[in-house]
Design goal:
Elements: H1 2-19, E1 28-30, E2 34-35, E3 40-41, E4 46-48, E5 51-54, E6 59-61, E7 66-67, E8 71-74, E9 76-78, E10 91-93, E11 96-98, E12 103-104, E13 109-111, E14 115-116, E15 121-122, E16 127-128, E17 136-139, E18 144-148, H2 151-159
Parallel strand pairs: 1-4, 2-5, 3-6, 5-8, 6-11, 7-12, 8-13, 11-14, 12-15, 13-16, 15-17
Antiparallel strand pairs: 9-10, 17-18
């Protein structure tokens, strides 16, 4: 069973490696099926437990990123303000930036044009439609900031290189 699990993880990691924009990254951990785009940029020590990226925008994951299962990121949308209704054949593409040390919970959706700041935590089931500041803890649909990390403790752990 352990051998099969290891083969599965290595296969998912291989898929991530060959679908990403940067191939010099270290320690990308892919524990479940993920669909990355050619415009995906990984930081070091990133952990995925199921992620699908939709669209052509650039998606950047900072170092020490962690996600639970079923993360969805949408970077391309139909143009509802075009020449037809409900939308036309043109699209709008917006990039997504997820900074370092971010933790994203189960079943989160992130929409294009969003930056999730360093050290932020996104609660399970959230829909992120606007920027989340550094160290914030946010949740809901749409996600709103309801708390923040202990910044002094966070910075101390960061300076001591204590990363999971």
């Amino acid at each position: 069973m352990k051998v099969l699990r290891k083969l599965k993880k290595n296969f998912f990691r291989y898929l991530a490696y060959f679908s990403s924009k940067n191939r010099d990254v270290l320690n990308v951990h892919v524990n479940n099926y993920c669909k990355f785009s050619k415009n995906t940029i990984f930081g070091n020590n990133t952990h995925f437990n199921g992620c699908k990226i939709f669209g052509n925008g650039i998606v950047t994951f900072g170092d020490n990123f962690h996600s639970a299962e079923n993360l969805k990121i949408m970077t391309t949308y139909h143009n509802y303000d075009g020449e037809k209704i409900p939308y036309d054949e043109t699209t709008i593409t917006k990039n997504v930036t997820i900074e370092e040390n971010v933790w994203v919970g189960l079943d989160v959706i992130v929409l294009g044009g969003v930056t999730i700041g360093e050290g932020a935590i996104i609660q399970a089931g959230s829909v992120v439609v606007k920027d989340i500041p550094k160290y914030a803890i946010a949740g809901g649909a749409p996600a709103v900031v309801f708390s923040k990390r202990n910044i002094d403790k966070y910075l101390k752990l960061k300076s001591e290189n204590k990363f999971f």
